[in-house]
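sry for the spam today, last one i promise. struct tokens for design, 423 residues
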């Protein structure tokens, strides 16, 4: 067989795009060479439905060792009692949890998508909004923050079976303790989806949901800096309160319900090559280097926030506790789409994003979301964040001047190609 030059040509093009631009999409990151290497291996050839030691296929002795190591490392990293590392993505992890914990038609309460929540927390276009009966809490207009008394009021009114916390575009800390109290009042399950800040949570820079939430889901590819994928964790396993029994009449543990939610509930065979890469990434995330990395991610987000403030941009909630910022561009008379389109011309990648109480559609939006996980992996520091904001501001204040935008692009390319990425 001759090598597929077309596809490998495109992959080289994409590699150059990643190397030469400034990557500010809050959900993206750059994995290490060994994470990449683990993914591109013969492990992709192996079927391993089931769990280590309990597979439906033969020849799983080696992938069992790999998956067990991934599980041990994940448990250590998050101080968790139980984990399933098989979900193919964050959305799959959430689907598995909902399938395991609640029934179609049951009420769920999540953070509003238009305030920074995620599609899988009850959006009408997603399985979560089609199969379950969603209601939402959001942020206050003046503060840009969640009002926990308001969440309690909504829960009292709606009586959800499952309360979901966590978001894709919320830059502030979560009150897990308060949410636990609210969930207990209604005998509801509490799930935290930490897809975005999981790396900062793992290394103690943000409050830990594990002691308060029944179940925690995450992606592995955002701040955690592993391969694309998801997982489900529990701080502590417990007997299911729905009274579901095993064939022998014993009350089933939550771990067994959640494992079944992943397989056979929502997935077939696990991706053992990705699980190997997850194991590599978890070991990296346990290192001192990674601790310094997540600290720098947060300092960089704060430096960026300060510089945007200096330049009179309106940051939702006026700042950030984590790795991302949500900026309302209405005071600059720009839409999110205009900003995204102009910045991409300068090889600066951000994403347009709805802001709370947005009056524009999700295709246009009034905001942009910016994260520092990827640029920090490239080795950029606080002073570089100021320079990036200066470049963004230059593009956005010269949105119709192609020559200015091309000048910025040249500066971006020259600057970034000096920072090595991938060997
Ligand atoms: C990114 C994200 C997900 C989904 O992850 P995928 O891997 O893209 O399916 C789920 N929940 C939240 C809060 C996210 O930010």
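last one done:
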């Amino acid at each position: 067989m001759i090598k597929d030059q077309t596809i490998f040509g495109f992959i080289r093009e994409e590699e150059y795009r990643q190397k030469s631009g400034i990557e500010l999409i809050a959900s993206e990151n750059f994995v290490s060479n060994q994470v990449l290497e683990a993914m591109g291996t013969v492990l992709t050839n192996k079927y391993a439905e089931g769990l280590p030691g309990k597979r439906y296929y033969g020849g799983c002795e080696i992938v069992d060792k790999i998956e067990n190591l991934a599980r041990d490392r994940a448990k250590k990293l998050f101080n968790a009692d139980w984990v399933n590392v098989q979900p193919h993505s964050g959305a799959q992890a959430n689907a598995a949890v909902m399938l395991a914990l609640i029934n179609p038609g049951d009420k769920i309460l999540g953070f509003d998508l238009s305030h920074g929540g995620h599609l899988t927390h009850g959006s009408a276009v997603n399985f979560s909004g089609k199969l379950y009966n969603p209601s939402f809490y959001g942020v206050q207009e003046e503060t840009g923050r969640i009002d926990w008394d308001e969440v309690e009021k909504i829960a009292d009114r709606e009586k959800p079976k499952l309360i979901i916390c966590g978001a894709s575009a919320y830059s502030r800390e979560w009150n897990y303790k308060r949410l636990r109290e609210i969930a207990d009042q209604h005998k509801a399950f509490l799930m935290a989806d930490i897809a975005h800040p999981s790396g900062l949570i793992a290394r103690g820079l943000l409050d830990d949901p594990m002691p308060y939430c029944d179940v925690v889901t995450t992606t592995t590819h955002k701040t955690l800096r592993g391969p694309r994928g998801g997982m489900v964790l529990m701080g502590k396993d417990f007997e299911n309160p729905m009274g579901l029994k095993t064939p022998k009449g014993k009350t089933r543990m939550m771990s067994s319900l959640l494992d079944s939610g992943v397989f056979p509930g929502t997935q077939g065979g696990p991706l053992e090559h990705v699980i190997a890469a997850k194991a590599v990434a978890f070991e990296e995330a346990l290192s001192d280097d990674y601790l310094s990395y997540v600290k720098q991610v947060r300092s960089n987000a704060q430096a960026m926030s300060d510089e945007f403030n200096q330049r009179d941009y309106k940051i939702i909630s006026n700042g950030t506790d984590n790795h991302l910022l949500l900026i309302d561009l209405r005071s600059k008379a720009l839409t999110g789409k205009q900003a995204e389109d102009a910045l991409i011309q300068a090889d600066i990648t951000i994403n347009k994003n709805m802001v709370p109480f947005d009056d524009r559609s999700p295709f246009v939006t009034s905001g942009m979301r910016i994260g520092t996980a990827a640029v920090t992996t490239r080795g950029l520091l606080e002073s570089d964040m100021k320079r990036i904001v200066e470049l963004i501001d230059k593009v956005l204040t010269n949105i119709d001047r192609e020559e200015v935008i091309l000048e910025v692009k040249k500066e971006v390319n020259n600057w970034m190609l000096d920072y090595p990425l991938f060997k």
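DSSP finds 15 helices and 15 strands in the chain. ok im logging off now
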